[in-house]
Sequence to fold (339 residues):
Amino acid sequence: MHTTSVALVGLGSYLPPQRISNEALCERLDTTDEWITSRTGIRNRHWAGPGVATGDLAVEAGHRALKSAGLEAGPGAVDLVVLATTTPDNPCPATAPDVASRLGLGPIAAYDIAAVCSGFLYALAAASAQITAGQAQRALVIGAETYSTILNPTDRTTNVIFGDGAGAVVLSAASGQDEAGLLLAVELGSDGSGRDLITIPAGGSRQRATTPAPDADDRYFTMRGKQVFTQAVNRMTESSQTVLDRLGWAADQVDWLVGHQANARILNAVARGLSIPAERAVMNLDRVGNTSAASIPLALADAAGDGSLTPGARVLLTAFGGGLTWGAVALTWPDIVAA
Ligand code: COA
Fold:
């Protein structure tokens, strides 16, 4: 039986211009550059300015991904938009239809995915499954975040870690089995019993915005760092290993490990657990911090831009996030220029 393959054919990224250094955070929080760099590896992150929403970043990254794929933003460019985000423009409606509309893509299917830092891999899985099922030919898959809008200004742990940004890829139906850019395996998982480890307690149906008004702090993003750390290492290592086993790839056949940019110590531990040398683990968190659903496409854009990712390279993506959720995706790198 003939099955449709799915190829990555375009990649774009966008960072809001305002860069926030560790030193800038030290001016208003009880922290030090030494603590932040040694515990996380992060030196800078970008935060969107007042009035800039996730959808604004997503439109920029979407434009660039379409351009990278040789497509004009307009009707017929793609027939599906999937947007992964933790920070939608509004609790209702989803942000993806607005992004599709602003890109002039016509009355196509568009929806959000909420899987926190694993969101981009969940979105890749959903879009590629729709293409494989014949429900779409080409999809724009975006990861976009403005965590600066949900951080508790007094919480030093989350402030130093999270950044804003957006990355996007174009996926397309492909007939060949051996062309570069093919998605080769997808593995996803979740464990809702860990829901409290990463959460915004209020604002949903469990703790409504109406009376009695929720505690102000409950409207902010919260994280239990230590427990998250251990879970992130274990889940990303396990799901990556599952994908490697399914494809019959040995660790030395992976050219690049592109993990969710949570923390340099987490990424190094995952690489070590998979026996992949640290030099083959892409790391850009020193410049952008943890950008949650935007993390993997931003890391891909960085590695493509500096020439690390070359056509045909075997790439392993892996992520972990709130939910708890996690996943891994393997692909061969396409012959594209990131925009
Ligand atoms: N500056 C200075 N000290 C800080 C600090 C900061 N920005 N943030 C926390 N600390 C303090 C803590 O209060 C704690 O103090 P205490 O020992 O007096 O209680 C101390 O540093 C150690 O905290 P701990 O949580 O044990 O540190 P850690 O080595 O686990 O590092 C994280 C903390 C948050 C960096 C780490 O747990 C982490 O990266 N977790 C995963 C985060 C993540 O990636 N989340 C996204 C989900 S994918």
User: Anything to note?
Assistant: The pocket of coenzyme A is lined by residues 31, 35-36, 39-40, 117, 156-157, 160, 198, 223, 225-226, 228-229, 232, 262-263, 290, 320-321 (CB under 6 Å). The chain has a mean pLDDT of 96. The chain is about 30% helix and 20% strand.
